[in-house]
């Protein structure tokens, strides 16, 4: 088991990439803190891991609220005494261009997708011991290839890449590694509506797949496996890195930005 004995916090682990990461971490021997804003989903994940013989604790957490993050960090310290891995996976998709979105929508997007990562890092880093630890931030390919009408989301994820680099430099001397994983279009509940619209036209859907050199969509487990590598000792000399998990979309000349319904 590649994560045996390690304590990991995974935010947004009630569904999607966070869920797949938490479950794979548990399979690899990690003890899990399930941090999610949805009490039913979070508790379900905790129970599932426990029933399979793992060790998990659910803590209701809105990462945009510092008091929630403090409580989550305190509950982790009380249960496990330390943290080895933090996966910042909690996020929301926000559509619209710079003229369409309101100030409230902008602030909510930044609060969850960017400020929440800072708050979790701020309160979890002190729980990482002298041996250090690892932080994995789930970003996006949007900062590399902009998609129309996803202005606030792309900005937040671009800021997240800068945040990751800054943390890697500041806390590297404490043996804390900070890396980003940038998923492309992954088949998760967050993307279910968009994917359903694309599949209404078989020709459009095939063209969408053709924008990926691998000719397929990614699944949450694909991102989770990347997170396991960055959380394990196999990546002990990797920090400040950006790992793109997108089926080759970012490097391909054929762009599908206008194919996706707004």
Please explain how this structure is put together.
By secondary structure, the protein is an alpha/beta fold. The chain has one domain (7-189, 217-248): Rossmann fold. It contains eight helices and nine strands. The mean pLDDT is 93.
User: Which structural category do the helix and sheet elements fall into?
Assistant: alpha/beta
Uncertain spans, ≥5 residues at pLDDT below 50? none
Q: On the 0-100 scale, what is the average pLDDT?
A: 93
The main β sheet shows up as: 7 strands, parallel
CATH 2nd-level architecture: 3-Layer(aba) Sandwich
Number of domains: 1
The CATH homologous superfamily is termed NAD(P)-binding Rossmann-like Domain
Distance between the termini: 42 Å
Helix content: 40-55%
From the 3D structure, determine the CATH topology: Rossmann fold
Rg over alpha carbons: 18 Å
Which range does the strand content fall in? 15-25%
Count of individual helical segments: 8
SSE run: EHEHEHEHEHEEHHEHE
Order of strands, main sheet, comes to 3-2-1-4-5-6-9
